[in-house]
Design brief:
The protein is α/β, with parallel strands linked by helices and about 725 residues long. It contains 33 helices and 13 strands. A seven-stranded parallel sheet has the order 3-2-1-4-5-6-7, covered by helices on one side. It has a six-stranded parallel sheet with strand order 10-9-8-11-12-13, sandwiched between helices.
Length: about 725
């Protein structure tokens, strides 16, 4: 800090010897300087300038209380000195007396409104005190009075506007800042942040690049640059920028967090987890790092540790819906928990009841159904919603799709063409999406995500439609009091399932889903893998989080019983060498060597992915969370699937699908039966060969792919439920 005025101590301009000696002592002997200043001011208490000078020096040595006393003495003699009020405000902040600091800054700004630094300090303090609207009003008034056109004041104005959610106005304020200081790295970086928040990543990238050019030693600028590069598709450059940021500041939480996101998106969860831990060590309250770490741990099968991490995020941020959603997802994978234990977590739902529910609107000829999903793209959900969109009876219903995915692809266009009305909802806030749904006068709003990625649970909690239904994307209760019904079938949710759903269960008469089939045509290899290779290959292409300890035990038993067999696992995390080593260790502890395992990462190309089933003789469904798309893909490619019928909807999807195919005998009631069925199928080469040629046709002719009939059943169920609404 620096005192604004710097006049002499006497009217004559001659500095007294005592004061001169005190000033000389500042550079060599702090104790002597203190004594000399104190002695001088004891003799000259009216010398306000020296009182302030001494106060400034005391503040510089960390003696804030003594400095405050001296500033007050100075101002008691000369109450119109704005610079002293500014310096005293800074001392009061050091003493954590923010209210008094605010008064001091306000006095400085009132005395010299034309000096931008006084106004900047006032606006910043108002913002820190949570008085953002006051900060904006003061800043707006002061920028008009500030004759010197202060860049620091404009910057604080921009920060206040951004904190109020006025991103566009903040951008204009930052442009004014940069007109005054075009090469100020801080302003460039903050303007980049504002552009990024509006999705203008390429413009933001230019700001961050310039900030780095001007101040290459600032870790924060490299961190921001890395984030912009990530969002503009330059992943290698992003990695380099984030590595530079971490090297410059190993404790920069944001850099570790962003690097973790980069690694997680690259299917390297073990590396990502390490960086999220570093981020949390630097900033334990960084909720996004805790949430993402929990997801990584869940992906790695460390379910209990993942739950502890989600709970940590919720302790610091009790209303963090994203962490709660991920916690609920985690529960479905844990074989040690009963359905009742999982459902008990619903009582912890963090959102308060939303606004009053929309009442049933007057009857129209066509009922309006809205589907909300972040997966209207190449994603498993898209293959189950497509038949419904294609075969809905447009005499009965009018279809609205609310797409919550920030990107689209060829499948997005297919689904868009099949809908009556398409809304790009990813760019809408929860309140904006709620408003859109209300304006569209939706009668039935169907959630296809539940608690999976890009869900809009907070929108459903606002109850913007008379009837709200959960279907397809999430295999358990939504836990939302505002969700009315859950769509299932009798196989996946028998009578005893009602007690573990907050919704009313609506059971379709046959299957609860309908499969469109893959978007690419991949022929089935006519010869089973065992016949070609001379040994059996069991396979599972489900996510690693579904491979629970009981699953590992069952598969290890199966491999021990079939000495020549191998197990083929393929999923995203297996791209990570650390994850592969972990999986090998888990099997090694069960007596299965790495040579019995074939571990592969995810393949983006759909044709190559489906062709991998040629190398599988029998597909093994995991439990207690069964596969869905993976099961149907295996059947489509002529591979039989063995499942275990569990005690939850997630654990009975395999039974539902296989029964719908007419192969209910492949769903075992216990683990011994599961192992025996897998061995029996693998040993029967004639059956394997026959299934290669017949399973696809059986599946295509089954209720699982009867889009017309399924759509009528779904419509009947939804319209009947709507008719019961007041």
């Amino acid at each position: 800090m620096r005192v604004a005025d710097s006049g002499t101590a006497t009217d004559s301009g001659k500095i007294p010897a005592a004061l001169a000696n005190a000033r000389r002592a500042l550079a060599s002997d702090a104790e002597e300087a203190r004594d000399l200043f104190s002695a001088y001011l004891e003799d000259h208490p009216q010398d306000a300038q020296v009182q302030a000078e001494f106060a400034q020096w005391l503040a510089g040595t960390g003696e804030y209380q003594a400095a405050l006393d001296r500033f007050r003495r100075a101002l008691s003699r000369q109450a119109d000195n704005a610079g002293w009020y500014l310096a005293m405000g800074q001392v009061l902040e050091r003493l954590e007396n923010r209210q008094q600091a605010l008064l001091s800054y306000e006095a400085a700004a009132r005395l010299e409104p034309e000096d931008g630094k006084h106004g900047a300090a006032l606006v910043a303090m108002l913002r820190r005190l949570g008085r953002n609207e006051d900060a904006i009003q003061w800043a707006a008034a002061l920028v008009k009075r500030c004759q010197t056109r202060s860049e620091v004041l404009w910057l604080q104005y921009a920060r206040a506007l951004r904190a109020a959610g006025r991103g566009s106005d903040a951008g204009h304020a930052l442009l004014e800042t940069l007109k005054l200081a075009p090469d100020w790295p801080v302003a460039l970086s903050e303007y980049g942040d504002t552009l990024a928040a509006q999705g203008q990543w390429r413009d933001a990238l230019r700001m961050f690049q310039r900030a780095v050019e001007l101040n290459a030693g600032d870790a924060g600028h490299h961190c921001n640059l890395g984030l912009a590069l990530m969002n503009t598709g330059s992943r290698m450059a992003a990695e380099k920028a984030l590595q530079t940021a971490i090297a410059l500041d190993p404790k920069l939480a944001a850099a570790h967090y962003n690097y973790g996101v980069l690694c997680q998106d690259a299917d390297l969860p073990s590396v990502a987890a390490s960086h999220y831990r570093n981020a949390l060590q630097a900033d334990p309250a960084l909720r996004q790092a805790a949430n993402n770490l929990g997801n990584c741990l869940t992906d790695l099968g460390a379910l209990a540790e993942g739950r502890r991490t989600f709970k940590h995020a919720l302790r610091t941020h009790p209303n963090y819906v994203g962490a709660f959603s991920n916690l609920l997802c985690n529960l479905n994978y844990d074989a040690a928990l009963s359905p009742a234990q999982r459902f008990a977590y619903c009582e912890r739902w963090p959102l308060a009841p939303g606004p009053e529910r929309v009442s049933r609107r007057k009857r129209r000829k066509r009922v309006r159904i809205g589907y909300v999903s972040g997966d209207f793209r190449t994603h498993s959900v898209s293959y189950f919603i497509e038949p419904v969109l294609r075969h809905h009876d447009r005499e009965r219903v009018e279809v609205f799709c609310y797409s919550c995915s920030p990107t689209g692809d060829a499948r997005t266009q297919v689904l868009r063409d099949l809908s009556d009305h398409w809304r790009e909802a990813a760019v809408l806030s929860d309140s904006e999406l709620e408003k859109q749904i209300r304006e569209d006068e939706i009668d039935i709003l169907v959630d296809l995500a539940g608690h999976t990625a890009r869900n809009r649970a907070e929108v459903f909690a606002r109850a913007p439609a008379p009837l709200q239904a959960s279907w397809l994307g999430y295999p358990a209760s939504s836990c939302l009091p505002e969700m009315d019904i859950y769509i299932a079938d009798q196989r996946s949710c028998p009578a005893d399932a009602d007690g573990v759903f907050s919704e009313a269960l609506v059971r379709l008469p046959r299957t609860f889903l309908c499969y469109a089939g893959p978007s690419v045509e991949v022929p089935v290899h006519a010869v089973p893998a065992r016949e070609r290779n001379g040994f059996t290959t069991y396979g599972c292409f489900n996510s690693l989080s579904k491979i629970s300890d009981p699953v590992l035990d069952a598969w290890s038993t199966l491999l021990q019983a079939d000495a020549g067999a191998i197990l083929y696992l393929k999923n995203r995390p297996l791209k990570d060498p650390g994850v592969r080593a972990l999986v090998e260790q888990r099997f090694a502890s069960r007596g299965i060597g790495a040579q019995r395992l074939r571990l592969e990462g995810w393949q983006a190309d759909a044709t190559a992915h489906l062709a991998c089933y040629d190398e599988v003789d029998v597909a093994l469904d995991p439990f207690p969370y069964n596969g869905t798309t993976t099961t149907l893909e295996a059947l489509w490619q002529g591979v039989p699937v063995v499942a275990l019928s569990g005690d939850s909807h997630a654990g009975r999807v395999g039974l539902s699908v296989l029964t719908g195919l007419g192969r209910g005998e492949w769903a075992a009631k216990d683990i011994d039966g599961y192992v025996q069925r897998a061995r029996a199928l693998a040993a029967d080469l004639h059956t394997l060969r026959d299934l290669r040629g017949s399973l696809r046709a059986q599946l295509a002719a089954s209720e699982l792919m009867d889009g017309v009939q399924f759509s009528r059943c779904l419509e009947d169920a939804l319209l009947e439920a709507l008719g019961e609404r007041p």
